[in-house]
């Protein structure tokens, strides 16, 4: 019997942490790799097991359920999911995937279910993933959403929300497939501190961003020094838009109202320092405010810990305000695959209420003639255009933005909606508003 290597043990522990404690997979993985001292190729394998299993569990679970006749313990299901991922989506040999899964179950779950794991995974291995989908997925002519849910491993309600936001039915399969693709590591060269050429990557839709084909970004000198950072190209475009929207009058005081964990704030701070402006980064959670302070090291920006819906600032005291609003995160499913299983439709109402209050606060803090840039890492219409439509009027006007090619929002002219299948970014939405 093959013993489970440390990479598989790490992957199992992370899946259990996600299920039991609502842990963020990327943070739990980093901790588990350090705890087990797993590095190099083994760390890369553990990362693939975690991210791949989380992304595709909506395809694997129906296969597993078709082969068992009783309820499964959550830990046993995670062992089966890991085994199914190795059998159906990697080049791991069948005997190795099955034997290591059985031993993983023996050592970390118990002896009594090893026979079940062995039998189920042998049956899983009898067909390819494509063959299983043909056998089990609903007929698309009868239940298109149900078919897509299994084929692309997305909950049906998320598929419906994405389809409404996309407004191009022919691209829905491509979008769902992009959510399941392994994202490249994207770096930002912070202006005045680092150049794109120094990072030696492939240019993204952001003029200051590059994709890395491989390697550990933590080994890059500019990243270690804080002159560059890991940041999705869509987030870079949000910060650049906030800094570049034309305004009337002075341009000296900038505010990032929801700054944690500090990626956009770090880019804004570099831009502000270049232009003689001063950035204030506000964050409600003290531990996240500490992350922002670390991200802003070496800049002149200041960090304030206060509630963005009732902030500690004077009315009309800023020239530019960024509201990177807390949201469902459905635009970043390729980077946070567990979010698709953690979020529910019931989460939207309180998030939308918070988004409205934060936007109202931002509009009160910006001076007449200044701009507010509202952004979400979600394309969901209720979190984006519907929130904005409520505030537009004589006192608040939309300032049209020009993003990358084919990025105009289908629901709000002048707003930008990015997509992973078109722009190789998270599905960021952003719009500029000006107080008249």
Write up this protein.
It contains 19 helices and twelve strands. It has 436 residues and is α/β, with parallel strands linked by helices. The N and C termini lie far apart (72 Å).
Shape: globular
Mean pLDDT: 96
Number of DSSP-assigned strands: 12
Helix percentage = 40-55%
Beta-strand percentage?
A: 5-15%
Low-confidence stretches: none
Major sheet? 8 strands, mixed
Query: Cα distance, first to last residue?
Result: 72 Å
Concise structural overview:
By secondary structure, the protein is α/β, with parallel strands linked by helices. The protein is built from 19 helices and 12 strands.
Name its key features:
alpha/beta; 4-stranded antiparallel sheet; 47% helix
């Amino acid at each position: 019997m093959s013993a489970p290597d440390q990479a598989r043990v790490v992957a199992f522990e992370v899946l259990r942490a996600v299920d039991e404690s609502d842990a963020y997979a990327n943070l739990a993985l980093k901790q588990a790799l350090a705890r087990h001292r797993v590095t190099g190729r083994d760390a890369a394998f553990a990362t693939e097991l975690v991210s791949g299993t989380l992304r595709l569990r909506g395809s694997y679970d129906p296969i597993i359920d078709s082969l068992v006749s009783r309820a499964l313990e959550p830990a046993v299901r995670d062992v089966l999911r890991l085994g199914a991922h190795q059998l159906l989506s990697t080049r791991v040999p069948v005997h190795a995937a099955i034997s290591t899964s059985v031993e993983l179950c023996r050592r970390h779950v118990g002896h009594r279910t090893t026979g079940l794991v062995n039998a189920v995974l042998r049956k899983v291995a009898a067909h390819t993933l494509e063959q299983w989908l043909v056998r089990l997925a609903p007929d698309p002519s009868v239940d298109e959403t149900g078919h897509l849910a299994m084929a692309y491993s997305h909950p049906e309600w998320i598929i419906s929300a994405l389809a409404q936001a996309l407004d191009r039915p022919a691209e829905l399969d491509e979008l769902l497939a992009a959510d399941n693709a392994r994202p490249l590591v994207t770096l930002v060269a912070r202006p005045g501190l680092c150049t794109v050429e120094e990072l030696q990557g492939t240019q993204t839709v952001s003029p200051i961003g590059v994709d890395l084909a491989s390697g550990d970004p933590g080994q890059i000198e500019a990243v270690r020094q804080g002159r560059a950072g890991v940041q999705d190209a869509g987030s870079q475009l949000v910060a650049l838009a906030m800094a570049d929207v034309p305004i009337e009058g002075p341009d000296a005081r900038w505010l990032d109202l929801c700054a944690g964990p500090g990626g956009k704030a770090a880019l804004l701070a570099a831009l502000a320092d270049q232009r003689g402006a001063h950035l204030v980064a506000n964050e409600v959670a003290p531990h996240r405010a500490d992350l922002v302070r670390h991200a802003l090291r070496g800049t002149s920006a200041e960090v304030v810990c206060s509630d963005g819906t009732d902030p500690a600032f004077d009315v009309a005291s800023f020239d530019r305000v960024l509201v990177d609003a807390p949201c469902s995160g459905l635009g970043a499913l390729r980077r946070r695959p567990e979010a698709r299983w953690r979020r529910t439709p019931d989460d939207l109402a309180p998030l939308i209420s918070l988004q409205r209050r934060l936007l109202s606060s931002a509009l009160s803090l910006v001076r007449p003639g200044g701009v507010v840039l509202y952004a979400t890492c979600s394309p969901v219409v209720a979190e984006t255009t519907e929130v904005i439509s409520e505030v537009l009027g004589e006192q608040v006007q939309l300032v049209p933005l020009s993003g990358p090619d084919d990025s105009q929002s289908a629901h709000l002219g002048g707003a930008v909606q990015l997509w992973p299948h078109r722009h190789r970014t998270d599905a960021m939405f952003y719009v500029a508003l000006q107080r008249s």
